[in-house]
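Input:
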Amino acid sequence: MTDDSFHVFDTTLRDGAQREGINLRVTDKLAIAKLLDEFGVGFIEGGWPGANPKDTEFFERARTELDLRHAQLTAFGATRRAGVAAAEDPQVAALRDSGAPVVTLVAKSDDRHVELALRTSLDENIAMIADTVAHLRDSGQRVFLDCEHFFDGYLHNPAYATRVVSAAAEAGADVVVLCDTNGGMLPDDITRIVGEVAQATGARLGMHAQDDSGCAVANTLAAVNAGATHVQCTANGYGERVGNANLFAVVPALVLKRDMDVLPEGCLREMTRVSQAIAEIVNIAPSTHQPYVGVSAFAHKAGLHASAIKIDPDLYQHTDPALVGNDMRMLVSDMAGRASIELKARELGFDLSNDRDLVGRMVERVKDLELAGYSFEAADASLELLLREELGEPVRYFDVESWRAIVEHHSDNSHLSEATVKLHVKGERVIASAEGNGPVNALDRALRSAMEGVYTALANVHLSDYKVRILEGSSGTAAITRVLIDFTDGHSDWTTVGVGENVIEASWIALQQAITYGLLRQGYPSLQA
Amino acid sequence: MTDDSFHVFDTTLRDGAQREGINLRVTDKLAIAKLLDEFGVGFIEGGWPGANPKDTEFFERARTELDLRHAQLTAFGATRRAGVAAAEDPQVAALRDSGAPVVTLVAKSDDRHVELALRTSLDENIAMIADTVAHLRDSGQRVFLDCEHFFDGYLHNPAYATRVVSAAAEAGADVVVLCDTNGGMLPDDITRIVGEVAQATGARLGMHAQDDSGCAVANTLAAVNAGATHVQCTANGYGERVGNANLFAVVPALVLKRDMDVLPEGCLREMTRVSQAIAEIVNIAPSTHQPYVGVSAFAHKAGLHASAIKIDPDLYQHTDPALVGNDMRMLVSDMAGRASIELKARELGFDLSNDRDLVGRMVERVKDLELAGYSFEAADASLELLLREELGEPVRYFDVESWRAIVEHHSDNSHLSEATVKLHVKGERVIASAEGNGPVNALDRALRSAMEGVYTALANVHLSDYKVRILEGSSGTAAITRVLIDFTDGHSDWTTVGVGENVIEASWIALQQAITYGLLRQGYPSLQA
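Output:
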């Protein structure tokens, strides 16, 4: 366990959510919070209760639905308005009543922002900070204070910026966080200024870096070097404009390169998984070239280095990928392709080490399918079905004659989605139709309706998630649609993939495989060819 | 013009090309070299002549086809083999005869790599460096020497790593480049080691940083702070594994934040264009969140900021985007307040500053719609249609009675997508059907078929991109589908958004708006309510 002497503070759900293209629903926020907790961060900033209905709902549901092992939930908000007592400001009251044990207050520390944006006096801004910190402290909450635009402010008026830090600390803020809100600082600026502020105020300092200069990770580390003991980061560096300091680069640098014990035991190994899972939830393709966690982060082009890597991989990698839950990969070489198919097969329970031909055929099929737009990284169930096919044990429970999906919008504004499937199940021709809330749902129901008499355990498996990605065709060619479908039987989950020129066709392929795999899991013997 | 006192050295064509997924043809390399020259770099490393036919051809064609205004072409290669005179090593001869005025030699500087990978003695490695540098110098070429794995080597055996630097400088290398080949260093390591090496050797030093710790830009700047006067970077940070120091982050930091005159006059303004053009050539989608040049780099979302941005944009941006050829953009989101709606409206050509009620109503509608899954950040056209509706000038060219889309998979494995729409266009009821390569394409065609007699200019607008995002699919609730559709009339582009429980319904909403907006752009007057 980590103690309070160093804070890993995550603000993915608040500042990270400001990234262009991210639009989180409350259930997304709850799922991300759970993952961040698994990664072992100390604080999760959940949002601004009272500022919008979504954040208010998040804090309400978090009380009952989030069972955090490592992290404390923090609420974000502003200091009281000018000329109003903190206790009487409804925005401050929402923070106080949020149920969050910690509140992060944002305050102006650049005198120009106080005058132009806040439109109040420099003294009143100080009073707003001191009053709000003291009020929340008196109500039993721990308070951190974010000094917005701190570094620009310090360069313009160091005396006032320093005064803000002192006022917050004196009023009882546990940490005063220096924010490079516009993200334009370079590490040497940070080292100098954080050092000066630490000396001038004696306050416990934190760092919040934006990445507009491409230096957010380095700026965060520079602040730690200069004495900061609290770092604010976001998963995968999500955030407004260019983004924030990337949690998954700052934390491993501290742990692996500076021997700082800032995560609970065993958590660093979860990093790659957590990073990718969060990318899935926000539906941004994981960056293949992200430090530490990207699929290319430990990928070596075969050639010059290959033989030496075999002798001592540590001569060619800055850290052991296993420490962050990632893997070394060799590219381009057919051997590497073969090895990964063998490894994957072993994971799935097949030993292929004595069947070079089979491995070769699988490598070719996977390569061809990936060229056509398939991706088996997440779709283990599709890969297993493919593998069983190559092993001469194809899994088959039904044959498809034809299917049809119809979506209608009627003149009374109602919608109808309806599907019909024509199957052959154990020698019998079956026709079934069903309605659904969309065409894929209707197809799923029609398939079940056609087979549930024969395969009764089908009732135990159902669709749990559905993702669509459009793969850009190069100019002139049609776009390819890739669909991933997650199924569950309540105990385990599996994913299948379908690709096609239209979304319904791609969905059908994935759906059919997901149901086939589900029947296999339920123990039904495959039909003979 | 810049002089020789500081080198901006680009290695996109050599080290950048090692990025997973990049595969450059000779014409691509020539086109990228031309763009890098327009950006004003001093040196363009073109590849390794003699090592592969593509690079050899590149140097041959460059002699006649490349007319560089600012840059010198440099050839990359290795020191002579052990036990062979430099003049008699064919690899060295290829460098000498390449026609390149400058050669960058790579050499081992980590004693472990000399022994394990090169399999020669430490003394022979020094001789290989000295001989090869002297031979190329004597042949009239300028020589830079890359010390591979320098920092890891220095930490392991500082005396030997330092000896390599001195040997190269004494043999006549103009610059000795310290390479963080594994990319694991942090800026404070770089500052210390570069300073120590500069003091110990007196050599002119350069820096080559890989980005495995997410600190390549900062590491390059740290080396400059410690005395390096030559920086090796790649366009957009392309490179092996995570990538190299990003040219388009290192150069603007030096120019804009450290007042170093490292680019020819006027070149920095080309940066965004050059970055995007190179991304097009290598066929990697430009990173929207890249510092300085990304479309999101100066995009503002938070409602909190928007009111003050109107007063003084420089308070909210780390540099003027025009200096790097980029633009500020305002985004509309559920966090946005009144000021961002006003600013957005002004961008779209409406002055709302005197209509507080209207702005309030728009903020409420946008908030409600975003809660339901809409996102207007990218969908300017949908936002404009919404705004016109609130202004009492709704845009309408047709009324929809009903529509239907059918997707069929036949027993011969063929697919059919067919749609029927029933519309009222200028008082007439029209029924039209069409087939397509998918249901959305079929709906698009049916809509056009129903209206093209009345709105002939509809032929000028067409769908150019289509994106689907599933917003929630867990815990039994229906998933919400968000569809973004891009349309173009060949001169300009617009985006609309649709949301619904099923993908066809969501697509229909976006499609209908995209066509409505297209007709507006083509100058048709809206029908009266």
